[in-house]
Amino acid sequence: MQETTLHNQLKEIYCQDSGQREVWVGGYLIDVVLEERLIEIQTRNLGALKEKLEALLEGYAVRVVHPIAQEKYIITKNSAGDTISRRRSPKRGRLIDLFHELVYLGRWVNHPNFSLEALLTSEEEIRIADGRGSWRRKGVSIQDRRLVRIFERHLFVTPSDYQRLLPLSLIDPFTNRQLADYSSIPHRLASKMTYTLTQSGLLEIVGKQGKAYQYHFTSHI
To answer: What is the pTM of this model?
Structure first.
């Protein structure tokens, strides 16, 4: 897939004055190389980074940057490039949505060389009515994504940083259903959270409540 404008904009932001863009390190092309760390910007599919992290984390500090669209505007154009419509998407991303993707990287959350920065953003999604896109979009293709602004930046360095995404009122031990209810999130997302945090060592399974596993914090803030 062609690199999006969003990806390029974030590389410019993180490159700063002293950084270098698109440098080969350890046999892998890195988005931004700073003196103190490597920056990998992944706008989607964090699982695609698994091989790269496996190879690089033992020798380099790596920060993964992942944007989450808190606000999205959908701009649809015709095949000639003329704008047909511009509307605001009803979907609003939240910081906790990070776990939809982080579930693939749970084993590295506790690695001393791994850190992650989640960005809550406003972005534009450019679509082309070319008849080649998904049937769900009635043949409209997604052409590009553009950054409008960054609302918030959240840095995660240690497993306890991720614990702050869990509700303070959550009982301990707890089940996925209880986590979903306390956090007002789907059960599937709660399952991804507990899987990720168990992989990282922040949670452990201590028993069952009926057929549901019970999770316990191994450390606290």
So the answer is: 0.89
